[in-house]
Each structure stands twice: as structure tokens, then as C-alpha cells.
Amino acid sequence: MAHVQAENEVMSADDRLQAQLELYHHSLAFVKSMALRAAADLRIPEAIHRRGGTATLSDIASDTGIHATKFAHLRRLMRVLTITGIFSSSSDAVFKLTPVSRLLAEGGQSSCNLSPVVVGVFVNPVAVTALLSIPKWFTDERAAALSLFEVAHGCTRWEMAAKEKGDSSLLDAGMVADSTIIMEVLLRDSHSIFEGVSSLVDVGGGHGAVAAAVARAFPEVNCTVLDLPHVVAGAPANESIQFVAGDMFEHIPSADVVLLKWILHCWQDEHCINILRRCKEAIPSRDAGGKVIIIDMVVGYAGAASAENVSMETQVLSDVYKMYMDGVEREEDEWAKIFSEAGFSDYKISPVLGFRSIIEVYP
């Protein structure tokens, strides 16, 4: 108690007031996510885009079907979205798209519309509800034996997916948009990782956005996408890609390169080791050009390791977010451990994709 009193005496009234401000700011941070989700659900960015990138509050209300009684509340929502940088606004209440909100609008760059990622992945009620159960998961003996998802929802995420049999089109669209942005930069700055490759299999490649980008840039590469049967069944026809239905835990088709984009962070170490062992079985020796390419986070590696750095903060926030589905974002030593246990001899990290890195892993 004396120690606590001493700390309070050290803090001046102004210090406490500033600390209070920061505490409340952190506590209200979730409102930014909720406001962003509301904007995506209401298609506000699309409404502004259709008017040439600039719209008044009345324009937005009219184009999105906002009820007349909620006009004043729309202004409050737009104020939050403007202060946080989603939109910009002039003094006469004219709202404009920013680089961030351009990624939420259908139109000229519809293939890069990330609204499905906001709505279907990050600001997802299933995930948010699960994260509210973290204290119980950390301390309750019965809860400790379960996944965070099971604690919150009473079943595994796979059981919920099977029970609901929901349409996965939202997630598929989001992953296509994410891959389009990633591959544009990867093929511009790191295209050499595919040079000399004659065949590639994209594991968990969904509707083939990554494989299609590689095939366009390197027509000589035979590109295959491996995913679950229901995913492959819904994939669009593409003559440059072969789609194969299967389970990455059981078998991966043979190729010079196996690519895993945003796959391993969904799984605990033992599952990742199993997947990587299947990858090792699928590729030739390093001398023959065999390797695994992983596009995922290496926490603390991309950008300066600072809490003030957007990349680093995004990485650690994503790591806690991944708890809800029993996944994990890894630091370099954690990646090295699973590579070694899966039987690989070496790896190389290139942090060139914003908050994600390219990891080349060699047998």
C-alpha cells in the first residue's frame, strides 16, 4: 500500500489527467472498429465513389438509404470516421475518400475492395465475442483446456461452420482483394523468388488470385491451387490454373515451390509442423530448386520494432486477434523452431509486404 501511495504522490495532477485521457482513449478504441464496420456495411465509401469521390452528408444519406430521423447521427458517425482518417472533410461538410477508404469502394478498383475483410474477418461478431472471454480463458481451469472459441461459443469454429453452412463468398472476395494488393508489390519488388521455377502449388489458395498473378507474370510456371472441395467448387474458371480439391494435412501435389499465404497463422505449432512436412514431401531438394514460400507476419521484423510503428502495432494486435481461432502470429525464433522440427535446413526473410514478410524455406 505504501508503494502505491508513493507512486500516486510522484504523479502530478496534470500527469494523472493526461493518463486518464490516454486510458479512456484506449478504452474507446473499439468504437473506431465499429464505426468502420458500419461504414462498410452501409457502403458509404461506395456512395462517395459513385459521386466522383466527393459527397455531402445529404448525398450520403440519400445514396445509402439512411432514415430521415438518423441524419444527425450520420453526421456523428462521419465525424469519427473523418477524425480517424477513413475520410477527409472540408469545413462545408463535404466528405472525400482517402487512400484508406478507396480500398473499401467498388468501382474502378473493385478487385481491391477490402470491405469483405473488414466485415467478414476483423470486425466479425464471432471474433469480438470470443475475445471478450479472454479473462475466463486465462484463469478458469475448465476453460484453459478449451480453445478461446469454444469458451465463448460452446463449439469449435469448424463445428460452427459445419452447422451454419454459411456462404463463404464474403471471405473469398476479401482474400482475392488482399491477394491482389500483395501480389502487385511482390511481383514488382521480389519477382526473382519465382525465377527458374517450373511448377508451383498454392496451398489454401482459395479462388486462385495469387496463382493467377504468378501465371500472368511467369507464363512458363505450371500453377496449381489446392483447397477444400467446397472452395474449389466455387472458384471461377481460369485456363492458366489447375484447381485440386484436397486436404493440406494429408497430401500436397508435387511442385518446385509450395506457397502458403496467410495460412500458417491460423494454426498452432503442431499443426504447422504437420503442414510443412507435407510441403517438404511435395518439393524437390534445394539443389533442384525446391522451396516453400510463406507470406505471413514475422512479428517485430517488418519495420522498426516500436509500439509507435503502425506495422508493429498491427502485428501484435493481429496476434491477440488470432487467439479467437486458436491461431498465432510468430516472431522469427518461433518460425525457426517449427521449420527445424518440420525437417527444413534454412530460411530467408524479406520484409517487403507492409506488416507481412516473405519467408523462403529450404529443405
UniProtKB/TrEMBL annotation:
Give start and end of each O-methyltransferase C-terminal domain.
137-345
Q: Which InterPro entries match?
A: COMT-like, COMT_C, COMT_dimerisation, SAM-dependent_MTases_sf, WH-like_DNA-bd_sf, WH_DNA-bd_sf
Instruction: Please indicate which superkingdom the organism of origin belongs to.
Output: Eukaryota
Record-annotated active site: 265
Q: Keyword set for this entry?
A: Methyltransferase, S-adenosyl-L-methionine, Transferase
Taking every annotated instance into account, which residue ranges of this chain make up the domain O-methyltransferase dimerisation?
Answer: 25-106
Pfam families from the UniProt entry: Dimerisation, Methyltransf_2
Instruction: Decide whether keyword Heme is in the record.
Output: no
Q: Per its record, what are the GO molecular function terms?
A: O-methyltransferase activity; protein dimerization activity; S-adenosylmethionine-dependent methyltransferase activity
Provide one Gene Ontology biological process annotation.
methylation
Do you know which PANTHER family this protein is assigned to? O-METHYLTRANSFERASE
What name does this protein carry?
A: O-methyltransferase domain-containing protein
Give the organism the record lists: Triticum aestivum
